[in-house]
Amino acid sequence: MIKNNPYLSVDENTLAREYIEKGYFVGEIKEKETISWIRKSLINIAKEELNIKKAVSEDNFLDSIHEHLTVSQLNNFRLAMIRRMNLLPEFRQNYYKVIKPYLDIIVGNEISMQLKANLSIQLPDDDSSLLPIHADTWSGDSPFEVVAWIPLVDCYKTKSMYILPANKYPVIEKNFKKMPDANTDDLFSSVEEDLKWLEIKYGEVLIFNQALPHGNRVNLENESRWSMNCRFKGLHTPYWDKKLGEYFMPITVKSCTRLGMNYEHPTNWLIE
Q1: Alpha carbon of 179 to those of 70, 171, 186, 216, 238: distances in Å?
Q2: What are the sequence ranges of the domains in the chain?
Q3: For 73-111, what is each residue's pLDDT tens digit?
């Protein structure tokens, strides 16, 4: 049983406990205008990349993007979208803004943010955009990071992602020991019954522990998935393969920390 932190409010304790017990948290984005700005900006970029001149419905354009491009065109299109969205002057600030209330509780208020956010687009029946079961820490990411996963469309069933809840993680540890030569399909099959397919609507955010196994499968729904993801961590927590200044950039350094970082101890004082 996880004890309440007496320095947190009832709501903050509830959120913190849920994140620890489940390994993830889905919450409503309160900044409606800001998340709308992000989605509209990406729609405008997509229209330009696809040379679509006519007006489109903001509510279903992204869901039906497979009507405007083929699987063979998808990767170049996605890379262009990632490059251009990260060049938007307010994009990083707005990404942080919509999830700040939850990061303050789960991570802290001195934050490092991934330099470039990622974008996933998964067309119906497309097997070229699969992310096999994995945990980011298995390839050198720090366990002090969280992933903020923001959908631009409603995500459900195979149009979403799955995660192994924290209380089921011992299952995969046992399976690892039993299957030293297993591939990702073997690993997926061994824990498939314990995986949680997440339902996350546009206007919500998923924050999850990237040390837990997660991934996706072929999108069997008749709509396309659009989701952004970006990693955040406490500024002063350990960095592993992804370093500060290379992969992460500090975004909320407090005044006291700035002064402390610039402090130089006087070496010429005489102590009597």
Answers
A1: 38, 12, 9, 22, 31
A2: 12-236+243-250
A3: 999 999 999 999 999 999 999 999 999 999 999 999 999
pLDDT band at 272 (very low <50, low <70, confident <90, very high): low
Distance separating alpha carbons of residues 122 and 155, to the nearest angstrom: 11
Q: pLDDT tens digits for 180-234? A: 777 888 889 888 999 999 999 999 999 999 999 999 999 999 999 999 999 999 9
Secondary structure of 153-170 in HEC code, one letter for each residue: CCECHHHCCEECCHHHHH
Pair type for strands 118-122 and 225-234: antiparallel
Neighbour tally for 206: CB within 10 Å: 23
Give Cα separations from 4 to 11, 20, 208, 209, 233 (angstroms). 11, 12, 20, 20, 22
The helix or strand, by DSSP H or E, that contains position 203, with its residue range, turns out to be: none
What average pLDDT does the segment 161-172 reach? 89
One-letter amino acid at 173 equals E
Q: Are 19 and 102 in contact (CB under 8 A)?
A: no
> By C-alpha distance, which of 146, 162, 151 is closest to 217?
162
Alpha carbons 78 and 63: distance in angstroms, whole number:
15
CATH assignment of 12-236+243-250, among 3.40.50.2300, 3.90.550.10, 3.90.1300.10, 2.60.120.620: 2.60.120.620
pTM: 0.93
Pairing of strands 118-122, 196-197: unpaired
